[in-house]
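Troubleshooting log. The previous structure file for this entry was overwritten by mistake, so regenerating from the original sequence record. Sequence copied from the archived sheet and checked twice against the printout by T.R.
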Amino acid sequence: MRFEEMSPAIISNTIAYSDNFIMLIGGIVNIYDNLTLEDCEAIIATKAIKQIQFAGGPEITKNTYLLINDHLLTQKPQPRLNFGGYTDLECLAFLRNAKALRVDIFKDNQLALVNKYLALDSLAISGIGISIAQVVQQVKLKELFVGEKLKALETIGKLKKLEQLTFSKVTLKNLNFLTSLKNLKALSFMLGSATDYGKLGEIGKIEKLSFMRVRLLKHEHLLPINQMKHLKELSFESQPHLLDLDWLKLKDVNVKTMACTNFNLSE
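Regenerated output below.
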């Protein structure tokens, strides 16, 4: 589809484009066809690139992947590669500069290919019924996003350099497997739940903790937060069962609430 045929909303939010790509205001580059060196130069000139993703269309060639690797993935800060929906990750062989990756896992061998070709700082991984046990090979990983119903989540506890961790649409019995993460500084829960948050005070040196649309989250679940000695920021979004902060004993914590419909801030 030619740029002129795009919707007015896309056109108004575009900061760079050619017949091969569109780059939106938020720094997301959607690749529709094979790139040229001129395309890469136009993307770099924006100084705003944050994520590269592939929007379908003709088969992407080795040359395009190498252009991305040699020109776009050498920018600082480095953009994230988004391979959501891709099943064949052999192309990572040409993208070895990548340090941040998002991928949906459909096959057991996909994570093996990630490990074969990349040494990541940041990984976002989603899937259903697939084991993430092999993630332990990403020994330099500092940031991890885990989504949906993946298996072997206890493996996360072996990622000793992890500093940021997010669970999305994940149901956890407890957080015991996270107590070995001594360097963890930020922990987020989204669109899921945990039966027992009792170990929060024993996990790393968490400075930022957030809950967004966590099912049936009530103040009795949150009491272990009072044992978090390093906590600086605490945020809640769309938590209808959060009524007040009377339970919170940590007075120096910056608390943010958004769309918590039944929340009343005590005087």
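The helical segments are 8-12, 37-45, 62-72, 110-117, 219-222. Archived copy saved in two places this time.
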